C-alpha cells in the first residue's frame, strides 16, 4: 500500500482541485516539474506500483533516485497545503492568539515595540477570556522577553500573571491525562460490554492522583472535562439516576456563580448535552427536552464548525426524547432531515442516527422502512463490534431480529437470534466453580458432574433469558397468548431491573409484553417507560 496515495485519497473532490492549483503555484520553472504529474498518477482510480510510476514519469530512462526525491517534494507541498488550509478554517480563539503572537514577534524584530506590545495585550485578553492557557503562557513568555521596552508593563506583574496561568494550565493538563486514562478504560470495557469493571474506584484513584477532586468549580472548561470523566464511569455502571441530579447541580452552580461567557459556549454545550442525556436515560424526558432546546438555541448563533460537531448529537437525543413523549412522528422527521441534510455526518453519528431511525420506524409499524434503514448501515458485525462497541452491535442485531419476525421471516429472525447467543457465549463463557474444576482435572472424568460458578452470558444473562422467550414466539407465535408464557414474561424483570435499566432494554421487553397482550407495541412501550 502506498502511504502517500492513501493520504492524498483522503482529500475531498474540492480539496483535490485546490491542491492541484496549489502545486501549480509552487512551480519555480515553467517546465520540467513533475509534481503535478505524480499527483495525477497517485490519485487515479487504479493504483500503480513504484516501478510503473517510475516508467510513466521517466519513460526515456528510469530514474528511481529522482522519483523518490519527487515524492518527498510532493509530500512537502501536501504538508504546506494542509497547514494553510488549517489556518484558514481554524476560527478558534487559540488560532487567533497564535496569529497575534506571530505578528507581535515580527513587530519586535522589525523594531516597532509599541505596536508589538499593543498586539500582545490583545492576545493576552483573548487567550485569558477563552481559557487558552498554553497560548497565554507563550504570550507571557514573549512579554517577559521584551520587558525592558518602555512600552512594557511592570515585569513583576507579568510574572505574577504568568504564575497564575501556569497553575491553571497545569490543572488542565492533569485533567487531560485523567480524561485520557478514563477513556482508555472505558474503551476496553466497551468492547467487552458490561464486564463488571469497577469504574468508581478507578475514577476516585485517578482524580486523587492528579489532585482534581475540587478543581471543577473553578472554570467551565475544567467542569466540562471532569463531568466527562464522571459520565464515563456512569455509562459503564448505568447509574443514570444519580448522575443526572449531580451534573444538573454542578451546571446550575456554575451558571449562577460565574455564568458562561460567549467564548465558553462550547463548554456550555458539552455540559448541556451531558445533562440532557442523563435526564433522558433517567426518564425525565420533558426536562431533557428543555435543556436540549437551550443548547439548540445557542447552536443557532454559533460558527458552522461547532454546529457540525454538536447539532447531530442534540438532534438525535431530541428525537429519542420525543419518542417517549408520544411524538414519534416528530422523531422520524428530525432524523430523516438530519440524514438528508447538506452536511455529511461523521461515520459514527451517521450509523447511530440510522439505527435510531429504524427504532422509530418500528414503533410506527413501518417494518419495511426499518429493515431498509438497517441494511443501509453496510457494516459487518465484526466491524460494528470493534468500532461501535458490543452493546451497539447487540441493539442492532436484536432490532433486526424483531423486524424480521414482524415481516414474517422466521428463518432470518432465528439467524439473528443465534448470532446474538453465539456472540454472548463467546464473550462470556460459563465458568466452573474452582473445586469442581480441580476435581475434573484430578479425575480425568469428562462426565463428572460439575457445578457452574457463573453461567454463560455474564452480565448479559438477562438477554439470553429474553432470547429464550423470543425463540418460543418464532417457533410458535400462538405461544405468546398462553398463561405460562405470561408468567415467564412477568418474571423477566427480575433479571432486568426496570427502574435502573437502559431504555433500549425496556424497548425490547415491551415488545414481548405487546405480543403477550395482543396490543400495539408503541402503546405498551409508553406504559413500560413510566414504571
Descriptive notes:
This protein is about 70% helix and about 0% strand. The chain has helices at about 5-10, 15-25, 35-40, 50-55, 65-90, 95-110, 115-130, 135-145, 155-190, 200-210, 220-235, 240-255, 265-280, 285-300, 305-325, 330-340, 345-365, 365-375, 380-390, 390-405, 410-425, 435-445, 460-475, 485-490, 505-515, 520-530, and strands at about 430, 450-455. The chain is mostly helical. α11 runs parallel beside α13 and α21 (about 410-425) runs antiparallel to α23. It contains 26 helices and two strands.
Strand and helix map with partners:
Blueprint: H1 3-8, H2 13-25, H3 35-42, H4 50-57, H5 64-89, H6 93-109, H7 113-129, H8 133-145, H9 155-192, H10 199-209, H11 220-237, H12 240-257, H13 265-281, H14 285-300, H15 304-323, H16 328-339, H17 347-363, H18 367-375, H19 381-388, H20 390-406, H21 410-427, E1 431-432, H22 434-443, E2 452-454, H23 461-475, H24 483-491, H25 503-517, H26 521-528
Antiparallel strand pairs: 1-2
Helix pairs in contact: 3-5, 6-7, 6-8, 7-8, 8-9, 9-10, 9-11, 11-12, 11-13, 12-13, 13-14, 13-15, 14-15, 15-16, 15-17, 16-17, 17-18, 18-20, 19-20, 20-21, 21-23, 25-26
Query: Mean of the pLDDT scores?
Result: 82
Helix content class:
over 70%
Which secondary-structure class do the elements indicate?
mainly alpha
Along the chain, the helix and strand elements come as HHHHHHHHHHHHHHHHHHHHHEHEHHHH
- Lateral strand order in the biggest sheet: 1-2
Q: Count of helices? A: 26
For the secondary structure, the number of strands is 2
- Proportion of strand residues: under 5%
Computed Rg: 29 Å
Assign an overall shape.
globular
Taking pLDDT < 50 over at least 5 consecutive residues as the criterion, the unreliable ranges are 193-197, 436-441, 446-452, 495-500
User: How does the major sheet shape up?
Assistant: 2 strands, antiparallel
Q: Could you give the distance between the termini?
A: 56 Å
Amino acid at each position: 500500500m502506498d502511504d502517500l496515495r492513501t493520504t492524498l485519497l483522503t482529500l475531498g473532490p474540492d480539496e483535490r482541485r485546490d491542491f492541484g492549483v496549489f502545486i501549480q503555484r509552487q512551480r519555480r520553472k515553467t517546465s520540467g516539474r513533475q509534481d503535478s504529474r505524480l499527483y495525477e498518477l497517485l490519485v487515479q482510480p487504479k493504483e500503480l506500483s513504484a516501478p510503473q510510476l517510475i516508467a510513466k514519469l521517466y519513460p526515456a530512462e528510469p530514474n528511481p533516485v529522482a522519483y523518490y526525491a519527487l515524492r518527498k517534494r510532493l509530500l512537502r507541498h501536501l504538508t504546506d497545503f494542509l497547514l494553510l488550509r488549517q489556518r484558514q478554517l481554524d476560527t478558534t480563539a487559540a488560532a487567533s492568539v497564535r496569529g497575534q503572537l506571530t505578528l507581535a514577534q515580527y513587530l519586535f524584530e522589525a523594531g516597532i515595540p509599541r505596536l508589538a506590545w499593543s498586539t500582545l495585550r490583545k492576545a493576552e485578553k483573548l487567550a485569558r477570556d477563552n481559557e487558552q492557557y498554553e497560548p497565554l503562557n507563550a504570550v507571557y513568555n514573549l512579554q517577559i522577553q521584551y520587558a525592558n521596552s518602555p512600552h512594557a508593563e511592570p515585569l513583576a506583574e507579568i510574572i505574577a500573571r504568568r504564575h497564575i496561568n501556569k497553575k491553571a494550565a497545569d490543572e488542565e493538563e492533569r485533567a487531560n491525562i485523567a480524561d485520557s486514562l478514563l477513556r482508555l478504560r472505558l474503551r476496553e470495557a466497551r468492547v467487552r460490554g458490561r464486564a463488571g469493571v469497577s469504574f468508581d474506584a478507578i475514577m476516585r484513584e485517578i482524580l486523587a492522583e492528579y489532585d482534581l477532586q475540587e478543581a471543577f468549580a473553578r472554570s467551565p472548561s475544567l467542569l466540562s472535562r471532569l463531568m466527562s470523566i464522571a459520565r464515563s464511569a456512569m455509562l459503564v455502571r448505568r447509574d443514570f439516576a444519580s448522575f443526572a441530579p449531580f451534573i444538573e447541580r454542578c451546571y446550575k452552580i456554575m451558571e449562577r456563580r460565574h455564568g458562561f461567557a460567549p467564548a465558553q459556549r462550547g463548554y456550555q454545550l458539552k455540559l448541556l448535552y451531558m445533562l440532557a442525556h442523563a435526564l433522558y436515560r433517567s426518564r425525565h424526558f420533558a426536562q431533557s427536552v428543555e435543556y436540549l432546546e437551550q443548547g439548540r438555541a445557542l447552536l443557532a448563533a454559533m460558527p458552522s464548525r461547532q454546529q457540525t460537531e454538536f447539532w447531530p448529537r442534540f438532534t438525535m437525543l431530541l428525537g429519542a426524547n420525543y419518542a417517549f413523549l408520544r411524538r414519534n412522528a416528530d422523531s422520524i422527521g428530525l432524523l430523516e432531515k438530519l440524514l438528508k441534510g447538506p452536511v455529511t455526518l461523521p461515520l459514527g453519528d451517521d450509523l447511530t442516527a440510522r439505527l435510531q431511525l429504524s427504532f422509530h420506524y418500528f414503533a410506527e409499524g413501518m417494518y419495511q422502512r426499518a429493515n431498509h434503514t438497517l441494511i443501509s448501515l453496510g457494516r459487518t458485525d465484526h466491524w460494528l463490534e470493534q468500532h461501535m462497541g458490543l452493546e451497539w452491535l447487540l441493539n442492532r442485531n436484536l432490532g433486526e431480529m424483531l423486524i424480521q419476525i414482524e415481516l414474517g421471516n422466521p428463518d432470518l429472525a432465528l439467524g439473528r437470534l443465534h448470532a446474538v447467543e453465539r456472540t454472548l457465549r463467546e464473550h462470556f463463557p460459563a465458568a466452573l466453580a474452582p473445586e469442581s474444576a480441580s476435581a475434573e482435572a484430578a479425575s480425568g472424568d469428562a462426565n463428572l458432574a460439575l457445578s457452574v460458578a457463573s453461567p454463560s452470558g455474564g452480565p448479559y444473562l438477562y438477554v439470553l433469558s429474553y432470547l429464550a422467550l423470543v425463540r418460543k414466539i418464532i417457533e410458535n407465535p400462538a405461544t405468546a397468548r398462553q398463561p405460562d408464557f405470561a408468567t415467564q414474561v412477568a418474571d423477566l424483570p427480575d433479571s432486568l431491573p426496570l427502574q435502573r435499566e437502559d431504555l433500549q432494554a425496556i424497548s425490547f421487553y415491551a415488545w414481548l409484553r405487546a405480543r403477550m397482550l395482543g396490543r400495539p407495541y408503541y402503546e405498551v412501550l409508553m406504559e413500560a417507560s413510566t414504571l
